Amino acid sequence: MIAADTRLLDVQGLTVAFGDTHVLHGVSFSLDRNEVLGIVGETGAGKSVLARALMNLLPSGARIVGGDVKVSGRSVFSLSEEDARKFRGGTVSLIGTNAKALLDPVQTVGSQVARVLQAHRSCSRREAREETRKLFEQVGIVNPKRRMEAYPHELSGGMAQRIVIAMALVTQPDIVLADDATLGLDATIQVQVLDLFVNRCRDLGLGAVIITHDLGIVAHYCDRIAIMKEGRIVELKPVGDFIAKPEAQYSAVLLDAAKVRPTPMTTQAEKGRGADNGDAILRVENLFKYFPLSGGEVVKAVDDVSFSLNRHETLALVGESGSGKTTVGQCLVKLLGTDQGRILFDGEDTVPLTEKEFRPLRRRMQMVFQEPYVALNPRWMVADLLSEPLRLEIGMSNTDRASRVRELLDLVRLPSKLAHAYPHELTAGEQKRVGIARALATKPEFVVFDEPTTALDIRVRAQIIDLVRDLQREIGLSALFITHDLNSVRSLAHYVAVMRLGKIVEMGETEAIFASPAQEYTQKLLAAELPIEQSAAQKIRATDRQNALGAAR
Amino acid sequence: MPQFQSIWSAILRRPAALIGLILLFLQIVAIVFAPVLATHSPVEANPLASLQPPSAEHWLGTDVSGMDIYSRIIYATRINLLISISAVAVAFVIGVPIGLLIGYYHNMASSLAMRVFDFIQSFPVFVLGMALVSVMGQEIWNVAIVLAVLFIPMFARLIRAEVLSLRQRPFISAARCSGATDGSIMFGHILPNALTPAIVQISISIGMAILLTAGLSFIGAGVRMPTPEWGLMVSSGAQQMILGIWWVSLFPGLAIVVSVLSFALLGDAAKEMFDPTNRSRT
After folding, report:
1. Model confidence over A115-171: pLDDT tens digits?
2. Do B189 and A438 touch (CB under 8 A)?
3. What percentage of chain A carries pLDDT values higher than 90?
4. What's the CA gap between B247 and B188, in Å, rounded?
5. Which of A5, B58, B108, B114 yields a CA-CA distance of 20 to 30 A from A234?
6. How many beta-carbon contacts under 8 Å exist across A and B?
7. Do residue B175 and residue A391 have CB atoms under 8 angstroms apart?
8. CA–CA min distance B280, chain A (Å)
């Protein structure tokens, strides 16, 4: 048994270096049984290195310069090879990002989990499988017996993440580390997975460390929070105290950035809307887009969707992955053909137009792509990327183009020296800005933003939101936001349309929808949001979430 | 694309690449200074000096017709590399645009082109080579054309495979939204990103071409005597080999090995150099 005065996990002055570069500087913290600690930091803060160091699994090239990690009083760095093997997975286990990539594609998930158990405990194959089945049931896998025979590619992202959680829990470890374990999952799935994970840890009295860049997750699930910056813990305190009053300047900035900045912005919106006041820049009528699958089935990606958008207004199209929201956006800018329906842009139906006939309209109608890096040709300099759309402007001289490029960089708050940089030399936020600048190059009247805030660090996300708000105000942009980040919707959109399985299930003014969602599906989506403002409301909100999720399941 | 300096330092870090480079350099010296380096005429027969073993007069001996093997090997570098490099250059220049087009457009013509490539590539190389050369005549340029025909499908397929994956990438959609036409998407966006594997393949193909040229000559489907050509020289000594007259075939054989090896080593180095950096970054 562990002596009462020995901490479950005790990290003292841990310093890790790659070559001569220190990536962790004297990190100290501890963790007790039955405690959930959240470690928050932006990209490059050293979170993942810390997780690997706790497992004594540092990547090659990294070395411990100083400090120690003690688990129940024993240093993890002094373990023998065999003890270290038992320790990893047996005493401390790690849940990584992207569950599908963590699973072996050629083994059934059941035997993968059972194998982990057999590696740590002497038991027969049958016993191991029986244990696994029970565990699958406990982590909320429906029909566990059948699921055990599934291969990873047959599972959804949320299901695969549950399997990985089961794999981490199967040996009944004392400590579980979750390193961005829910990154890339839909919000509704994310809360299900986190609820389950945290509840299991609490039931078993484990110590858990949730490593994330999402303050909302920490606010909802953790007891204490550690803010990391550049390899240092800058603040460590109970979550409630932190949200009420962050001490370090950096954590105050982070907290502020994570907050919703509500209030829609233009005066136009205040005029009130009515379904259509005649000033619609875009009207979509009964849009259909089906994708045939092999075997005669069809995916009804867009199934009779209609909406309209007035000038200077922003409509957000929200929904989970697979709801068809991105397909709608692609149909609008003619990256995809439309099966049926009308898309009236400024009164003109674009559906029957050929690519050549549509090309002049591209000047007035642009799209900002989701992943900033892959949407930029890696071999083109920023200046070239920004001037490409300018070819749509007939009779523009080279000097005009160059000055427009400078204007654009200025518009998205990028220094003009970046004109000669290549995409891989930019940070994610800068890449996103280049993507936005490119879409704005021809001064379009209407822009589709595909997931403008996803996968960005807290501060960068806030900066992008501010930028888009400025653009809405300064150039009176009409925009369609396609997103599953409901927090950003509140900051950016006047109206919201909720999509599910190719259909719009609910549509209305943003604040009205957020205040009183009519549809059960919308309620479920909203309940899955993990906003940071919750100190007093947290408990109520948490209960609400449980209820809504329970009802929708 | 890597900068010149980084290419240079990458080569120096790999001993294999350095050896390849040195061997290539020796061949270039042989090509440029052949008249200076050769001790005899490469094509002048001398029946009195037939089949002499290596000596001070004839460093690597003489063949059946009494021609100096050393001088012929030196001059053959010109022929062999000329054939191989021009064949690969032609195949690259023709194969790359074809690959780009059939990867970008999906229509009857592109699937027809793929079937033609299947046909060319499923044919045994030597049978095809013999057939083509016997129809067109045993000239140096005909051998080069045969090799080019054989290599076009290889480059076209390589490029096509790259194009197929590149055209799915978001930056192509983004370019289309920016009003890019098919032509500017193909040549401005896709081609520069698709070229790397084809460039790596150049060096490896030259090695293969040298081997094929020699092979065609060896079976009598290549260039004709007395043209100095390595494969032909190996072939001309093959009968004497069992009589213990080893030098006639051995030395040109070694020349083939050295030449193929140099391009293979450089090709491997190029592959290593381009692959990890570009793949991991994109």
Report:
1. 988 888 888 889 999 989 988 888 878 888 888 898 888 888 788 888 898 898 888
2. no
3. 31
4. 54
5. A5
6. 60
7. no
8. 11
| Strand ranges across the sheet with A62-71 | A21-31, A9-18, A62-71, A74-75
Q: How far is Cα of residue A61 from the mean position of the Cα atoms in its chain? A: 30
How many helices (H) and strands (E) are present in chain A, helices listed first?
22, 20
Residue among A359, A371, A438 minimizing CB distance to B170? A371
Considering chain B, what is the average pLDDT of its residues?
Answer: 86
Encode pLDDT of B105-131 as tens digits: 988 998 999 999 998 888 887 887 788
pLDDT at A273: 45
Identify the pLDDT of residue A317. 94
* Confidence tier at B2 by pLDDT (50, 70, 90): low
Residue B273 has pLDDT above 80, yes or no: no
Contact indicator for B164, B103 with CB cutoff of 8 Å: yes
Domain locations in chain B as residue ranges: 17-27+61-281
Q: Is A378 in Cβ contact with B193 (below 8 Å)? A: yes
Q: What topology is assigned to B17-27+61-281 in CATH?
A: MetI-like fold (1.10.3720)
| Record: contact A369-B174, CB cut-off 8 A | yes
Is CATH 3.20.20.360 what the domain over A262-364+446-527 is classified as, yes or no?
no
CB A378 within 8 A of CB B193: yes
Average confidence (pLDDT) over A103-115:
90
Question: Is the CB of residue A439 less than 8 Å away from at least one CB of chain B?
Answer: yes
| DSSP annotation of B62 | B
A107: left (phi over 0), alpha (psi -120 to 50) or beta: beta
Beta bridge partners of A176: A93, A208
Determine contact: A370 vs chain B, CB below 8 A: yes
**Chain center to CA of A271:** 34
Element (H, E) at A13: strand A9-18
CA-angle at B253, arms to B247 and B258, nearest 5°? 125
C-alpha distances out from residue A132 to A110, A207, B82, B237, Å:
7, 22, 67, 72
Give ipTM to 2 decimals.
0.75
Q: Which residues pair with A508 in a beta bridge?
A: A496
Kindly report the pTM of this predicted structure. 0.79
| CA-based R_g, chain B, Å | 22
> Residue A105 in 3-state DSSP?
coil
Q: What spatial distance separates the first Cα and last Cα of chain A, rounded to whole Å?
A: 41
Confidence at B10, pLDDT banded by 50, 70, 90 = low
pLDDT at B1: 47
Residues B174, A375: C-beta atoms closer than 8 Å? yes
Radius of gyration of chain A (CA): 25
Domain spans of chain A, in order of start = 100-172, 262-364+446-527, 379-443
Cα(A504)–Cα(A478) distance, integer angstroms: 20
- Structure confidence by residue, pLDDT tens digits, A225-255: 999 999 999 999 888 888 888 888 999 888 8
Structural contact between residues A472 and A265, judged by C-beta atoms closer than 8 angstroms: yes
Q: Looking at residue A386, what is its pLDDT?
A: 93
Q: How many CB atoms neighbour CB A59 within 10 A? A: 9
Q: Which residue of A has its CA nearest to B193?
A: A379
- Which pLDDT does position A343 carry in this prediction? 94
Strands A340-345 and A503-509: unpaired
Q: What is the mean pLDDT of residues A514-518?
A: 88
Which of B165, B169, B171 best probes binding to A when mutated, by most A CB atoms within 10 angstroms?
A: B171
CA–CA distance, A231 with A24 (Å, rounded to integer): 4
A366 contacts in chain B (CB < 8 Å): 177-178
What's the CA gap between A155 and A109, in Å, rounded? 10
Higher pLDDT, A50 or B281: A50
